[in-house]
Amino acid sequence: MLFKFRYIKEYPFSIIIILVITYLTLSQPMEIGRLLFKGWDKFAHFAMYGTLSGVFWIEFLLKHRKKQVNYLYAMVGGVLYPVLFGGFLEICQRYFTHYRSGDWWDFLSNMGGVVLATLIAWYALRPWIMKNS
After folding, report:
1. Model pLDDT, residue 104
2. 40-68 residue pLDDT tens
3. Helix, strand or coil for residue 118?
4. Exposure winner among 1, 25, 35, 56, fewest CB in 10 A?
């Protein structure tokens, strides 16, 4: 089975964020962008994917705080999946909507958010959670 339903129970906030990002990315764009600063959408991409990765890391670290784990799985869930997901949604914007366009700079902003969240999780959250468990 490709998708295991236990992930819904183990990572509920990550799943909710995935659904919200999917909706915001593929829905009709809001007019709020004209009121904000230039490049605000790149910041939004950075924040959305940083949040996705960060929340995944928090859920993973809290779930596995009392046992030895293979962090390769966490890297796949906290880094690889968000990056691939962001790329997939950029492709979907380009080819399946007429009101959005896929953008390499959006994709790079997604990756930047993932990298920052992973660095914070690895060097700050992981030691703190392991120490306090």
Report:
1. 93
2. 789 999 999 999 999 999 999 998 887 77
3. helix
4. 1
Question: Rounded to an integer, what distance in angstroms lies between the CA atom of residue 113 and that of residue 133?
Answer: 27
* Residues 86-89: contacts with CB under 8 Å, at least 24 apart: 86/45, 86/49, 86/110, 86/111, 86/114, 89/21, 89/22, 89/25, 89/26
Residue 38 has pLDDT above 70, yes or no: yes
CB atoms within 10 A of CB 74: 19
Which run of H or E residues covers position 4?
Answer: none
Which helix (H) or strand (E) is 12 found in, with range?
helix 12-26
The pTM of the whole model exceeds 0.90:
no
* CA distance linking residue 80 with residue 37, whole number of Å: 30
